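Hey team,

Filing this mostly as a record. A colleague (T.K.) asked me to run one chain through the structure pipeline before their review meeting, and I want the input and output archived in the tracker in case anyone asks later how it was produced. No errors, nothing strange. Just documentation.

Input sequence:
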Amino acid sequence: MAEIRGDRRAAVVPLAVGGLVLSLFPIVYLHVSSVGELSPITHTISDYIFVDDGAGLLAVTALSLAAASAALLVALVRSGLPRRGPVAVLLGLWSAGLAVATVFPTDPSGSPTSFSGAVHRYAGAVMFAALPLAGWLISRTFIASTALRRFSVAAGITSVVFMLSHVAVLFPGSGAVVVGLFERVLFALLYCVLFLLAVAALRRGVRS
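Output structure:
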């Protein structure tokens, strides 16, 4: 029976990794295709919905990332992670935040905040706080991984810096607008956290 559970767990991890890899293609394409149209320094990733085919491609990225994260959660739970513990809740919030942010798109730069834009912003705040904290908790209580702990801490710090960088957007003239830069650094770190979680889950599956 334990061998069957291990096989099932090991089978889920490649699906998660596949979802993570799939999520990268649309967003990389949008970065390349919109050169000169959007600035990766001043515009957030959510702003790609305003370029040609951006809404659909960005949805593929976000939903693939959400599905991959949910698959990782399943693999970790099958590895022994408490189903109803704080880590499971945080990973669930991260996945749900991605889905909600997709359903409720952001507002164009400089326009008043709409209901959709407000929901998008709060969903982003929740998910950017949830995953770094989940990674850190996993590295401390479930999987002994120095790399996972360091990337989770780096992602948490970058998340705070990203939130603070919005001051220059909300109050023009108060500083340089670099929200896009910090968000891209944050997403790079979050992808590292997710891939490290996949490796850890796979190793636990092999050992068990």
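Quick notes for T.K.: Confidence is low (pLDDT under 50) at residues 1-6. The helical segments are 2-33, 54-78, 86-103, 115-141, 146-164, 167-170, 179-207.
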